[in-house]
Amino acid sequence: MTGNATVLTQLLRQRRSVRDFRPDPVPDEVLEAILADACQSPSWSNTQPYRLAVASGELRNRLATEYCAAWDASLAALKSGAIGKLRLALGAEGRPDGDFNTRFPYPADLLPRRRATGFGLYKALGIAREDMAARNRQMRRNFEFFGAPTVIFLFVHRGLREFSVLDAGILLQSLMMSAQARGLATCAQGALANWAGPPKRAFAVPPDYKLICGISLGYASTSGVNQFNPGRSPAAELLLAPR
């Protein structure tokens, strides 16, 4: 392989979804370089149907507080039974206000991979399957951005429908690879799409743009959870056979 191919292969295989970050801030010039790289991503007719909102420092802390409050209120309502669920449905504090519904059954053929990843992650964290309190605490870490000093919110244009999401995925991969090349770590978080209110109150989001996910960005800690690797299927398992 050429030098560039070797480097790319290493970056792709070394990247992990990091779930525990050091508090060290990301230098402005590094963040700007990562965003500049991401903006080189290809898109449908070069429409670039996405927007990014970046929060560090006090704004990041404010968003974490809002997200955690929403999670805490939602969890408390769900624990209170049918009445709590009804209150959530009627718009009580903590009711998810995301632009996309993230709560849906997984297709049967994809469920085994999802379960294997979840079981492996909780094993790495030392959390027993029946320990709901510990599982809820770990879920809450999503809304603390796993301690990352910077969080990025990714919005997609509703007018380009599924193809906005396709292009956003390309942008997201470019961003994560650029961060990895600079010694930073990332975690793409669908959980943040449960509540669109906090980032929409913090940023001037155009009305046609919907929150698809967040990305925590920073320097990985030495926590053992960051060594967790669920693995990937070999290409042979993903390739379709000709008829």
Shape: globular
Biggest pleated-sheet summary: 4 strands, antiparallel
What's the helical proportion of residues? 40-55%
Find the structural class using helix and strand composition.
Answer: alpha+beta
- Count the helices. How many? 9
Radius of gyration: 19 Å
C-alpha termini separation: 33 Å
Low-pLDDT sequence parts:
none
Order of helices and strands: HHEHHHHEHEHEH
Query: In oligomeric terms, what are we looking at?
Result: single chain
Q: Give the strand order of the largest sheet, numbering strands 1, 2, ... along the chain.
A: 1-2-4-3
Mean pLDDT over all positions: 93
Keywords:
4 strands; 9 helices; 243 residues; alpha+beta; 46% helix; 4-stranded antiparallel beta sheet; 12% strand
Summarize the structure in short.
This protein has 243 residues and is α+β, with helices and mostly antiparallel strands.
What does this structure look like?
The structure is a single chain. This protein is an alpha+beta fold and 243 residues long. Helices cover 46% and strands 12% of the residues. It has 9 helices and 4 strands. It has helices at 3-14, 28-38, 57-79, 82-89, 111-125, 132-143, 162-181, 197-202, 235-238; strands spanning 50-56, 150-157, 185-189, 209-218. Helix 2 (28-38) crosses helix 7 (162-181) and helix 3 (57-79) crosses helix 4. The longest helix is centred in the N-terminal third of the chain and has 23 residues, at 57-79. It is globular. The protein starts with a helix and ends in a 5-residue tail after the last helix.
Describe how the helices and strands are arranged.
Elements: H1 3-14, H2 28-38, E1 50-56, H3 57-79, H4 82-89, H5 111-125, H6 132-143, E2 150-157, H7 162-181, E3 185-189, H8 197-202, E4 209-218, H9 235-238
Helix pairs in contact: 2-7, 3-4
